[in-house]
Write a structure and sequence with these properties.
Aspartate Aminotransferase, domain 2; seven-stranded mixed beta sheet; 15% strand; globular; binds (4S)-4,5-diaminopentanoic acid
């Protein structure tokens, strides 16, 4: 059989970068095979270097709410790039995007832009510690908040995909300040607070646990976390890097009426360019330098190209009807996948909110997945791998891991949904 260009590039890449990729999940380790090297994207589609076309449900892991190379975003970027790519000095664009975030995300009064979700969560935790004068934090098993030391404890995403234990290189003294609890278990969090009543600076949570698959919060769970934080004087930190502008224009906090102290954002607010932000209540944000003593900085923070792409993406996304249309398409797709699985007699567990979704193949029919232990116990990752490759063969690109979420964009029309469902039905019909 002829070697594909992707195979050749992957071989080259393995000599150049660890595992041949610049972020672990991309390596296809849990599904096997060769990662497709992407040559271009347009609308709902990406093309690999062998010119195979795929309907894309990864969408750069979420940010491309308008699909690839949206004309308005491309035009704005083309114009912006002629004015320079970085100044290391403030711009009006930063004010505009910060104002848009303040206007859209309910709890946010002030914003600090950074360059990635990892920076956003890392800085938000430093801020929580600086503001409260406490050192411990609580995170949830299987939630992923980027790769800062204190957050690589029982982490999801690539750590879950590769089945790794906590990462070497994280000092034990750092990890000791990170307390963990199972997602969706308020009693466990209460116990941690009772054991450490005066030392927890904050609780950080993905409102939908979307790095261990797709696990929705139970009724009242997030509000319960908020209330426990209030009771014990800790900050409630919502990591909306994935859910922001995805589960509602104003994120999970809008959808479920939450009032976090701090919010972490990423991805969507840069329209696919490298960006992140931590944001929140004015009184807390004023602790950040130079307004206050907590130091955090970045040469490329507020980069004019990222601000431009973010502004045009969000302006377009919040035009009346746009978000709702993507949400409807998402529902159609998820309903179709559930129906196809039912008629094929395959046990799956689906979940969706706004414009993101996920599904697990279950080892036991009827099993419910509400936390990381259950995800590991019941998710049939081997079957997912076979499904993933069969879909890829038919031109549909899902995440190369059962433990990641899927996304739609405004470019995913009826044709793409129908083609995807036809491929799903065919695949499930022959999957043992
Ligand atoms: N952690 C990202 C998904 N939740 C994966 C990023 C990437 O591999 O590009």
């Amino acid at each position: 059989m002829q070697t594909s260009k992707s195979e050749k590039l992957f071989q080259q890449a393995q000599a150049l970068t660890p595992g041949g990729v610049n972020s672990p999940v991309r390596a296809f380790r849990s599904v096997g095979g060769t990662p497709r090297f992407i040559a271009r994207g347009e609308g709902a589609y990406v093309w690999d270097v062998d010119d195979n076309r795929y309907i894309d449900y990864v969408l750069s892991w979420g940010p491309l709410t308008l699909g690839h190379a949206h004309p308005a975003v491309v035009q704005a970027l083309q114009e912006a790039v002629t004015r320079g790519t970085s100044y290391g000095a403030p711009t009006e664009l930063e004010n505009q995007l910060a104002q848009l975030v303040v206007d859209t995300v309910p709890s946010v009064e002030m914003v600090r832009f950074v360059n990635s979700g990892t920076e956003a969560t890392m800085s938000a935790l430093r801020l929580a510690r600086a503001y409260t004068g406490r050192e411990k934090i609580i995170k949830f098993a299987g939630c992923y908040h980027g790769h800062a030391d204190m957050l690589l404890v029982q982490a999801g995403s690539g750590v879950a995909t590769l089945g790794l234990p906590d990462s070497p290189g994280v000092p034990a003294s750092t990890a000791a300040n990170t307390l963990t609890a199972p997602f969706n278990d308020l009693d466990a969090v209460r116990q941690l607070f009772e054991q450490n009543p005066d030392s927890i600076a904050g609780v950080i949570v993905e409102p939908i646990a979307a790095n261990m698959g797709f696990v929705l919060p139970g009724d009242g769970y997030l509000q319960g976390l908020h209330d426990l934080c209030r009771e014990y004087g800790a900050l409630f930190i919502l990591d909306e890097v994935m859910t922001g502008f995805r589960v509602a224009p104003g994120g999970a906090q809008q959808r479920w009426n939450l009032d976090p102290d701090l919010t972490c954002l990423g991805k969507v607010i840069g329209g696919g360019l490298p960006v992140g932000a931590y944001a929140g209540k004015r009184e807390i944000m004023q602790t950040v330098a130079p307004a206050g003593p907590m130091y955090q900085a970045g040469t490329l923070s507020g980069n004019p190209l990222a601000m431009t792409a973010g502004l045009v993406t969000i302006w377009t996304l919040i035009e009346p009807g746009t978000f709702e249309r993507i949400e409807q398409q998402t529902q159609k797709l998820v309903d179709g996948i559930a129906a196809a699985a039912q008629s094929a007699g395959i046990a799956i567990h689906t979940g969706n909110a706004g414009t993101m979704f996920g599904f697990y193949f279950l080892r036991e029919s009827g099993a419910s997945i509400t936390n990381y232990d259950e995800a590991k116990q019941y998710a049939d990752t081997e079957r997912y791998g076979r499904f993933f490759h069969a879909m890829l063969e038919q031109g549909v690109y899902f995440a190369p891991s059962q433990f990641e979420a899927a996304f739609l964009s405004s470019a995913h029309g009826d044709d793409e949904i129908q083609a995807t469902l036809a491929a799903v039905e065919k695949t499930l019909g022959m999957l043992d």
